[in-house]
Each structure stands twice: as C-alpha cells, then as structure tokens.
Design brief:
The chain contains 4 helices and 9 strands, in the order ααααβββββββββ. It is an alpha+beta fold. α2 packs antiparallel against α3.
C-alpha cells in the first residue's frame, strides 16, 4: 500500500505510514468511497441506457454488475446500486427482444404484401399449352398493379386491379407465388364495367424467362417474359 501523502510504500495491513505517519485506513476508506461513487454513477447510467439504447445498456449493465461484485469481494460491503445493473440487464434483453420481434414482423408483412416489384414486375405473354404457338393472354405486373388481357387486344379486353402476394417460396431456381388478385374494373369490347367479383386467387411459378400461371378455376397458362 502506498501513502497518498508522501508516496512511500507500506505493508498491506499497516494503519499508519512508516515514513510520514499518515493514517492509511482513512486513505483506504477515501479510495473505497470514491470507487463506490464511481460504481454507483456507472450503474445509474447503464440503467438509463437500457431504456434508450438497449444493446449498449445491456453491455454496460453487465460491466456494472461485475464491478459491483468485485467491489463487494474487496471491501466485504454491499453495493446499493447493484440492483440497477440486474434490472438494467433484464430490461435491455426484453426491449432488444421486442425490437427484434417487431422488426421481423414488419419485415415479414412488408415482404408478403409489397410483393417483389423487381422480380415479378414484367409483361408476360401466355398460351394454353406448352406445345402451342398461339398466345391468348397478356399478363402485366407493374408495382402493385395487375392487368390480365386478351393477347393483342389488351386495351379493349382486360381485367385491371391490384395484386397481393399471400405466400411465396424459392425452390430449384424458381419463384413460387400465391397471389390474391383484386380487380378494380374490367373492359370488354372497349366498355368499362365495375361489376366484377372482389378477388381471385392465382398461383404463379416463374424464373427470369418463363412462368406458369394457374387461375382460380384451375386453368393453366404457359408464359414467356416479353
């Protein structure tokens, strides 16, 4: 132990400095008191950060808990602010878990209902048989908009509306989407009408060049990206 007054080294359990007579017990108590105040301030700060910045608050609360236990072993005294670190750890873990859970849910909902504008966005020209050369339908995905029209006469004969992706998978290099198509109107021979069922379910399996679309009445279309 070193004397705070003259700097002389003394034996560990010495009560007074052998050189200047300074009370070493008072010095030790003063050092412990400063250390305790530092630990307490650190514990409060980590507790507050556990609410504001949970990951950082978690790390600091763990450090604070270690410091409190170390001080208790060295001085055999309890640290009143030790509980702040324990509560800080619990709060940080809970809030971090909630944030991650909300992020996963938001990402999942966003992914499902936004669809894949970049992958699916395109115009597809479809035929009723993979062996046929006659195209019968044009299908267009543009953002959230959907158009199903007669090939070569889409402007005068089509169904138009919004689409929502209910489920999707990626297997063997192909995207498989389950789509809810909700028409806003349909056009027959150039005449627009809004009297149409509220929604239809469709399945689409596609890659960069080709797609297979199965409508709600089980009709299957074999399509190529335009």
């Amino acid at each position: 132990m070193y004397c705070s007054r003259c700097g002389a080294q003394n034996e560990l359990n010495s009560k007074f400095c052998a050189k200047c007579g300074n009370n070493l017990n008072e010095m030790a108590e003063e050092v412990d008191d400063k250390k305790l105040k530092s630990i307490n301030r650190f514990s409060i700060a980590s507790f507050i950060l556990s609410f504001l910045l949970p990951p950082i608050g978690l790390i600091l609360s763990i450090i604070g808990l270690v410091r409190c236990n170390k001080y208790k072993k060295e001085t055999n005294e309890k640290v009143g602010y030790l509980a702040f670190n324990i509560v800080g750890i619990i709060i940080s873990i809970v809030i971090t878990f909630i944030i991650l859970l909300v992020a996963i849910i938001v990402f999942g909902v966003f992914t499902i209902f936004k669809g894949s504008d970049e992958i699916l966005k395109s115009t597809w020209e479809c035929k009723m048989s993979p062996f046929s050369s006659t195209k019968v339908v044009t299908v267009k995905f543009d953002g959230k908009d959907f158009m199903w029209g007669k090939y070569g006469d889409e402007e005068n004969n089509n169904f138009s509306g919004k689409y929502y992706i209910l489920d999707r998978e990626y297997t063997n290099g192909k995207n498989e989407y389950s789509i809810d198509f909700r028409p806003n109107y349909y056009i027959v021979s150039g005449k627009k009408s809004y009297n149409y069922p509220t929604s239809q379910k469709m399945e689409i399996e596609f890659d960069e060049k080709r797609a297979t679309i199965t409508s709600s009445n089980s009709a299957r279309y074999y399509c190529e990206r335009k």
